[in-house]
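User: I'm new to structure prediction. If I give you an amino acid sequence, what do you actually give back? Let's try with this one:
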Amino acid sequence: MSIPHVSPQRLAVKIKEHDTQRTIMGWLNVYGIFFWRNNTGVKIREATETQNRGFIRFGTPGAPDLFAIHAGKVYGIECKSPTGKQTEKQKAFEQSFSGAGRGTCVYILARSLEDVTEAISLVARP
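Assistant: Good question. You get back a string of structure tokens that encode the predicted 3D arrangement of the chain. For your 126 residues, that looks like this:
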């Protein structure tokens, strides 16, 4: 009886964007770094007597998942799975954000916690 070949990719654990985000939020919390989750999306508004059914948009399209402030810098943290790709709006936001603060705005494309710890470890922690 032969054993079928299974590729390493099929055996690998699939890390989801949400898992990466939760890990990063936990790390920021442990180190006392001020942060918030930045929700962006659309909600359906149901019809009322005075308004038709419609959409309520919130957040800025392309904005990162998390923002953190530490040691005089503002970090925009876009969480992705190991294979996730930025949208065009996310790329445009990254360019605008990175150029806005004369070095005080740092955009992090985070595929793992290590991407965040490397970027924030450049700044001395209190």
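You can read the tokens as a compact description of the fold. Here is one thing that stands out. The chain is about 30% helix and 25% strand.
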